[in-house]
Design a protein that fits this description.
The protein is α/β, with parallel strands linked by helices. About 40% of the residues lie in helices and about 15% in strands. The chain is globular. The protein starts with about 30 loop residues before the first strand and ends with a helix. Bound molecules: pyridoxal-5'-phosphate. The site of pyridoxal-5'-phosphate (PLP) has 12 residues, from helix 4.
Length: about 400
């Protein structure tokens, strides 16, 4: 089946007229269309972080006592970027750590239940399962059809709430299915019933201007090192309500007597230059293109990319490879793979590794309900050509590998 191709947006350029990718240090011999997994850091931010590390290494005794106040400055800037209150915002190394902080800090409530969804990030869900074991309780998993509307997804989650529910863990943007979940309405319903909610917003910072608008949850954690292009090891944990002051960093340190979130600014002898360099990435994108214009580009490029790739598959299979995810994301999209590949999480990861090594393309593959998907990401350094290359180089190989998988005895 051939889909009418959407017009390709004009690539973003640097002020000197060069390609946007020139501001990053990604290997030019491969194609990077998986910003969503591990991010990518602009050169100017890497340079600042390297300079900060040099300062730390030159005079550690001057560096470390001054560090908590520098961390506070960085989180003030990060909170302003996220449009959240700095006095509710702590910095943690990553979204996994933010979830672990919540899991390890909540008061022990024996026999209680945690509600998660089948779109959750595996590592965060495993943390919830471990907490439930420690509580002698259970995890209830809400099953949400891939294409569920906001109200269908809301109902599928709320139906799992009971008098025993002590925590709800829900993604604002899901990892395997690249969709939005209605975290605002879920948080409102949970609040009405007195149930705390942890929103896993790992992908969210950078993708929305005020990402917590309309979300009255107890805990929210988002990675700055994904779409906000911060150095790896930078995430914001926002906690509101009575439970906020229960939260302690995973590393017990000298900040312990201070209230939340100040106690998170002190973390022993740790390299926190990732936090300090983060504002450089936020400023770089704002000064070069403006975040609003960047977000528009990400969305237009993702529209082009998903149609281009689905069209390439469909031209051979005759099927529709576009995916209805109910509540789509601007810069992350799914394209359905031919049957037989990436049908499980381990086989999707193995496919990702094979595509890197044999085809020179850094992408992401996911599986949901036994079906494999290519999950594409867009960022300012990507161009339509990146996705044309995927369509021309990877689609034929994936079709061949799927044929081999389905014809194997
Ligand atoms: C929804 C979701 N939660 C959590 C994480 C974990 O992020 P990190 O590895 O930075 O802790 C990811 C990573 O992709 C994610 O997609």
């Amino acid at each position: 089946m051939n889909f009418p191709l959407l017009a390709a947006p004009a690539p973003l350029l640097l002020p000197d007229g060069g390609a946007a990718a020139g501001a990053w240090t990604l290997d030019e011999s491969s194609v990077h269309i998986n910003h969503g997994s591990f991010g990518a850091v602009p050169r100017v931010t890497q340079e600042l972080q390297n300079a900060l590390r040099a300062e730390m290494d030159a005079a550690p005794v001057a560096w470390f006592p001054a560090l908590p106040s520098l961390v506070r400055e960085a989180r003030t800037r990060i909170a302003a970027f996220l449009d959240v209150d700095v006095d509710r915002t702590a910095l943690v190394p990553n979204a996994s750590a933010g979830a672990s902080v919540v899991y390890s800090s909540l008061p022990v409530t024996r026999g209680l239940e945690i509600v998660v969804t089948d779109h959750g990030y595996g590592a965060v869900t495993m943390g919830a399962e471990r907490l439930a074991r420690r509580w002698g309780g259970t995890v209830r998993t809400a099953h949400i059809p891939l294409g569920a509307t906001a109200s269908e997804a809301h109902d599928a989650i709320v139906v799992e709430f009971s008098d025993r529910t002590a925590l709800v863990v829900i993604d604002q943007i899901t990892s395997p299915t690249a969709r939005v979940l209605p975290v605002g309405s879920i948080s409102a319903e949970a609040k009405r019933r007195g149930i705390p909610v942890l929103v896993d917003a790992a992908h969210v910072p950078g993708l929305y201007a005020s990402p917590m608008d309309g979300i009255d949850c107890d805990f929210w954690v988002g990675n700055l090192h994904k779409f906000a292009c911060a150095p790896r090891g930078t995430a914001a944990l926002v906690a509101r309500g009575d439970l906020a002051d229960e939260l302690y960093p995973l590393v017990d340190s000298w900040g312990a007597p201070y209230p939340y979130p100040d106690r998170f600014d002190t973390q022993g002898t740790l390299d926190q230059t990732s936090y300090l360099a983060t504002p450089r990435s936020l400023d770089f994108i704002e000064e070069t293109w403006g975040w609003d214009a960047a977000r528009r580009y990400l969305s237009e490029l993702a529209d082009y990319a998903e149609h281009r790739i689905a069209d390439a598959f469909g031209a051979v299979t005759g099927d529709d490879h576009l995916v209805d995810v109910g509540m789509p994301v601007n810069a992350l999209r799914l394209v359905r793979l031919p049957a037989g590949i990436a049908t499980t999480h381990p086989s999707a990861d193995a496919l990702r590794d094979r595509v890197v090594s044999e085809l020179g393309v850094e992408g992401a593959f996911t599986s949901f309900d036994g079906i494999g998907y290519f999950r594409l990401s867009t960022h300012v350094y990507n161009t339509p050509t990146d996705f044309d290359i995927f369509a021309e180089r990877c689609v034929p190989a994936l079709l061949e590998w799927a044929r081999e998988a389905t014809s194997a005895p």
